[in-house]
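I have been asked to look over a protein record a colleague put together. This is what I was given:
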Amino acid sequence: MKYMLLALLLMSSSVFSNFVLSEGSLLKLAKEGSPNLDLIRASSLEAKKASLTIGNNLGFKFYGGYNHTTTKEKPIMPFMPVFSPVNQYQLGIKKDFKYGMSAKIEAGIDTRSASDSNLHGVHTSKYALELGFDLWENFLGRVTRRQIENANMSVEYQNLKESIDKKVYSLNARKLYWSIVANNEKTKLTKKLFNMSKRQLKEAKRRQRNSVADDSEVARYESLVAAREGQILYLNFEKQNMLKSLRDLLPSLRDSTIILGKYNIQKSVYEVLACTNKISANNKAPTKHTDYLKIVELLTNVQKNQEVIDNTTGVDLKLITRLQNVGVSSNSDGAGGYTGSFQDSLDDMNENDRQGFEAGLSFSIPFGEDTKSLKIVRQKINQLKQKANIKQVDANIENTHRQISNSINILTKVMLAQKKNAKSLSRRVKDMRKKYSQARIPLYALIQDEDALLDNDLSIIDTQLTILNTVLDYFVVFNKMPCSFNKEI
């Protein structure tokens, strides 16, 4: 029985392990992998896939074919042969280029017979080089090159966006961590007053037994103890919600017991103050510390290319040239018939000038559609989307710096006022306790001042957390701000 209990304890300890929560351990766990980071990476890979697809479309393609024909049809004229069977083989390589041209190299063999004309296995071998040139909308790759550039810039854009999204993800994790720390500080402060209230209640009951205090004083302390206990329970409720959010953010913590590790608030306060000083020192947005400026540049270039792409109407005009060499093997068999072989066709090609050249134009013009209106709508959509994105990013850079700088200055003044108020309230509470022990003031006056001091101390913690979160929000845009509190995942 003892060994069974030991085994159960070992199993439970292995399933529910402890995770000591600190800012460093949290960022390390986030870096090791989470569904959020996987989704961020997947979005970046989608752009890379689109770019590779365009590149593959311009790659080498190997093609081939075989065709067999058998017929019993009657010749149109007595002296015209009907070929049957006919076997045709074709192999080739083709490639499209970004400069509006295509190339094709192919080889083909044709073997055919005609029993009514005594033709048996006549061979025709063919080698050809074909070049195609776009002469209209994609002349010199005007459209294709811009499509490739946009695809490459899209990859670069998504890589920047991936870096920013990872930053946002780590900042959200850090916000949760510091909210848990703030909750812990509030709980410690409230528990301190809760324990004091219990001691005061115990003292009030002692005084009641000695007929020094009445029942109303005891009831007031009982009410105060219950109120403090309610505050502690509510803070614990908030903490559990934060831990749930943390587990949602990092599912690997699902089966772990999260224990808040040691932290150095004073050090973090100095780091935040150093960052706020750097932020406030810049009158203008420090664009060198953000990736958003590069995003604006990319979006601007994409828009320019897209305007050229969207200006197309679908009209296609191509010049096609073909240089080929053909060898035929059709030799008399001495009995009135003709036969041939592959090698003989190659010999004919090598020993005689059998070269040929072809050139032609092909065009296609769409009709039956309102192509002009479609082009205008397409251009308008692109202009509106791209300009809106550029304006939004530009405004985000400037507004983030201006508003957060102002907010930090205001919040710093608020915190200084709260700390000044805390010093005054501390002196007053100390004096009020002395007066109450001398029976110079009523109980409710002392409790009112203690509540005011507690509320002010809790407000200081909230203000510090707000300043910290505001600085973290600043790092969303200015993700390369050089200060120690700007940690990377």
